Amino acid sequence: MIKTRYLTLLILIFCGKSVLAQVPAWGGGADLKDISFGFGFQYISSDFKILKTADWRTPYYDTGSKSNVTDSLSSISTASTQGFGVGFVARYRITDNLEVRTTPSLSFTDRTLIYQYINSATQTFKQVNASLVEVPLSLKIKSDRIVNFRAYLLGGVKYSYGISKIPAEDPNLSPLDKMVVTNRGYASYEAGIGMDIYFEYFKFSPEFKISNSFGNILATGNNPYSKPLDSLFLHTLVFTIYFE
Q1: Element (H, E) at 110
Q2: Which of 3, 149, 193, 205 has the most C-beta neighbours closer than 10 Å?
Q3: Among residues of the chain, what percentage have pLDDT more than 70?
């Protein structure tokens, strides 16, 4: 009886391998090349980690009008805002389970800061606009391929650079019309997870990735919205679909 069970198990294993071998290894041959290229579309959600100055609650004193132009602050917060990006992917195969890749992209995102004052029932929203060229460099660790599917992990660094020139603070604007400005260029670290799904002529890869700026990205500014801030750190969640 035991021998019969072992024999049945061996037959199932070998038959299973035979069936898998007959399934075509689709994907347009992307993984069979050392170098390949593709393109991707991104959905982006980002917000700030905020560090405030010691006297952040203090009303803002305008030297021009010689008066306080804001009330005392009760809170400064951030909200997740959405954006999108487009780009391409270039990969180099090191082994069957390891590759290095870069995914340059052009992204358009807004970030929001929310100011709540003690004697005001309404909140003040300040948008921090960003149009960026982003160049990540990542290592991608892939599982073994199972028919037309494999999972992967990735990690690396990214440099972001604003394509819109940061304007100098306009002295003709009233203090309440001025904006919070971030550095034009900054670096981030990132990590993600995804899967490669192989179709007959291409490879489709949905991917989730998080990134955080290495340091403070707040640019110096003397206005009611920048002065209470000591540092801003950017946190970003990106969902991307790649086609190779």
Answers
A1: strand 105-117
A2: 205
A3: 85
